[in-house]
Amino acid sequence: MSSPPLSVVVLAAGEGKRMRSHTPKVLHPVAGQPMLAHVLEAARTLEPAAIHVIHGHGGEAVRAGLPDADLHWVHQAERLGTGHAVRQALPHIPDDHQVLVLCADVPLIRARTLRRLVDAAADGVSVLTVSLGDATGYGRILRAADGRIQGIVEEKDATPAQRAIREVNTGLLCLPARALRGWLEALDTGNAQGEYYLTDCIALAHDAGLAVVPVVCDDPDEVQGVNDRGQLAAVERACQRRQADALMRDQGLGLADPARFDLRGSLRVGMDCFIDVDVIIEGHVTLGDGVRVGPFSRLRDCSIGAGSEVLSHCELVSATLAEDCRVGPYARLRPGTELETAARVGNFVEVKQARVGAGSKINHLSYIGDARLGRHVNVGAGTITCNYDGRQKHLTQIGDRVFIGSNTALVAPVHVGAGATVGAGTTVREDVAEDSLAVDRGQRREISGWRSGHNDH
């Protein structure tokens, strides 16, 4: 027998007052993505017929932050409780569907757990539960003598004996749409918060003779909700540890300390890669075999070839490195940087929109922007390409085997021919021919007996 169609309802209307932020709570990031995006990613693995996101005040910002065409946005004008929120979506859900209710502030929920929850519901009801050492703030699961769930009581309505229960409601449930429609109509606000509780539907399902199946989650981190900054930080670290463990297990990544690693995007690694402490990976990053990344570095949208090394305190953004390159320490590669095989970019060097040829070196204290460097070029310390004239950018071209002396300024557009040498301190304003020496030095003058005014006191 095939499973009934599935509709997903995501509760995202919470105000998040305890976050003390102008940003809607569900848009606060975990591992570089809004919390809500994590929940939606897990939900989509179930291939539901529709995903309905319930939003309240500030919903325009939420919709702008997640402009997904496949989402059905539902406005909850009044915050009258979770039951009232789900009721807003029901007119858009056929009676023969299962309804999976998710919480937008539970970002670490796994797709496989949601599958278990949906499968357990069958034609009845399923509830995701977890046992906590400290259950403060959660609704308690009420079980009958035979172990079946007969209801959920919210903490503010619970008796002292009920508050001692450690099995709690995670807020994730799966229910049949036709029956749910009637149960929601039967809800009232006779409770401590004066709201329509979705959880009251569980007792109504039990009283109607439907099976209420508990699905127990054995990982409290997976169902941790986020209501304040402290919980957000805890979820972030749990997510990072989960990602680190997966990278070490599935791809063989070496990490100096998994607790000091941050992935805010996707990372693909080859064999024998190693990442030191306090490295941040953003966007889409690929590391070839044997790549090593030093501590306190940030890589965003980069591809790094086999055998290359990024030393400490470097920032690489939208850069491409071929095999056996070395970068840093304290180097910055900005968008459009391409390093060919065995290129070197050293300490306090900034490169932008430039291709550095195979075996070329920019080892110290230089800025190379909007440039094309050939093979085996040596760029001396303090060299800059003067690529901007105040209105537009211009290109500097440097041929193979060029030697650029220290403290040189290359005023673009300019071309230095292959094999040329540029003497230290030269300002290159015109093209330099191949295999020539360019020197631009004024005559040295010494004025004896000179005393500057600041010495006269």
Quick description:
The protein is an alpha/beta fold and 457 residues long. The chain is built from 8 helices and 37 strands.
Mind explaining what this structure looks like?
InterPro entries: Bifunctional_GlmU, GlmU-like, GlmU_C_LbH, Hexapep, Hexapep_transf_CS, MobA-like_NTP_Trfase, Nucleotide-diphossugar_trans, Trimer_LpxA-like_sf. It catalyses: alpha-D-glucosamine 1-phosphate + acetyl-CoA = N-acetyl-alpha-D-glucosamine 1-phosphate + CoA + H(+); N-acetyl-alpha-D-glucosamine 1-phosphate + UTP + H(+) = UDP-N-acetyl-alpha-D-glucosamine + diphosphate. It is found in: Cytoplasm. It is built from eight helices and 37 strands. With 457 residues, the chain is α/β, with parallel strands linked by helices. β2 and β3 form a beta hairpin. The radius of gyration is 31 Å and the shape is elongated. It has two domains: 218 residues, Alpha-Beta Complex (Spore Coat Polysaccharide Biosynthesis Protein SpsA, Chain A), CATH 3.90.550; 210 residues, UDP N-Acetylglucosamine Acyltransferase, domain 1, CATH 2.160.10. Strands 12-14-16-19-22-25-27-29-32-35-37 form an eleven-stranded parallel β-sheet, with no helix packed on it. An eight-stranded parallel beta barrel has the order 15-17-20-23-26-24-21-18. It has a seven-stranded mixed β-sheet with strand order 5-4-1-6-10-7-11, with helices on both faces. The longest helix has 23 residues. The N and C termini lie far apart (99 Å).
